[in-house]
Amino acid sequence: xxxxxxxxxxxxxxxxxxxxxxxxxxxxxxxxxxxxxxxxxxxxxxxxxxxxxxxxxxxxxxxxxxxxxxxxxxxxxxxxxxxxxxxxxxxxxxxxxxxxxxxxxxxxxxxxxxxxxxxxxxxxxxxxxxxxxxxxxxxxxxxxxxxxxxxxxxxxxxxxxxxxxxxxxxxxxxxxxxxxxxxxxxxxxxxxxxxxxxxxxxxxxxxxxxxxxxxxxxxxxxxxxxxxxxxxxxxxxxxxxxxxxxxxxxxxxxxxxxxxxxxxxxxxxxxxxxxxxxxxxxxxxxxxxxxxxxxxxxxxxxxxxxxxxxxxxxxxxxxxxxxxxxxxxxxxxxxxxxxxxxxxxxxxxxxxxxxxxxxxxxxxxxxxxxxxxxxxxxxx
Length: 380
Hints:
Elements: H1 19-26, H2 30-44, H3 62-79, H4 83-105, E1 110-113, H5 115-122, E2 139-144, H6 147-159, E3 169-181, E4 184-194, E5 202-210, H7 216-221, H8 239-255, E6 264-265, E7 284-286, E8 289-291, E9 302-305, E10 331-334, E11 337-339, E12 351-353, E13 356-358, E14 365-366
Parallel strand pairs: 1-2, 1-9, 10-14
Antiparallel strand pairs: 2-3, 3-4, 4-5, 6-9, 7-8, 10-13, 11-12
Helix pairs in contact: 2-4, 3-4, 6-8
């Protein structure tokens, strides 16, 4: 028996279907409606390259309003909803259209965070101020598929009393809202949790105000003036949601720091020009329900943020055991953190200091608050 001399090709890793692609599967009309509406609104509103569309501006495009109106009518006619519930459902769909349009308007920029990097960023100190927290693009998406991020997503579903299969992917769409209050930047985070079960991705939407000198705690507690904090759902101030925002903010900083090297992964099943959403594989019809393949890759090209476990020499700061003469006698993990550039350096971007072990090479390792556990792959 002879063995083949040709080794099978190693498939290039790519994230699963993203949240907006799940929506396109449910509403095929969005495949062309969103690109056409984004182009029409850019022209009609004379938007500058850095500007984003506001929700109240969706009504400037008649086909969008017609789409939402038809959806509400269908929910009444075919699903038996009353007018109020159908309007609520259409309003939720309008929230999805908001991030879909801005994502399309600004070139569908997507960052896929590798599992080990997500682990490190989740434990990286956010000792920064609002002046450095700026998106790499006016609207962009961050994709999380690692086990710890999905565990956070599961906690959020449970806290919201949503009964869904385990999450498979979290797609967070971040939108720069511009200066909504004088001297203060507005940021909207749409975190979509998708079980790839044929249902709408579960959406959590949060608006934040970022002042230049605000620390992370102030940013996480911020809200627009018109928001009544007493009526705000406690999910938005819960520990899991703050942990998710912590990770997303660190991922944003990573894309604009000196470490970042742009590495783009092309989709193995790209969407057609002028369309949104993949057409590669047809769904199966089982028991009267549409079942899409869960293993299908996203049709979007993504910027890959790779994770690395550093084993290099100790850096010049952090904690560790020491003798009475100031010499290190034990080895300890030092958490990842951000460092500002020296004022004299030409490159003034932030530096991400990766987690590292500080102390003599042969000394015992003391595991304290920070323990680094990388996952084997981004897909978990």
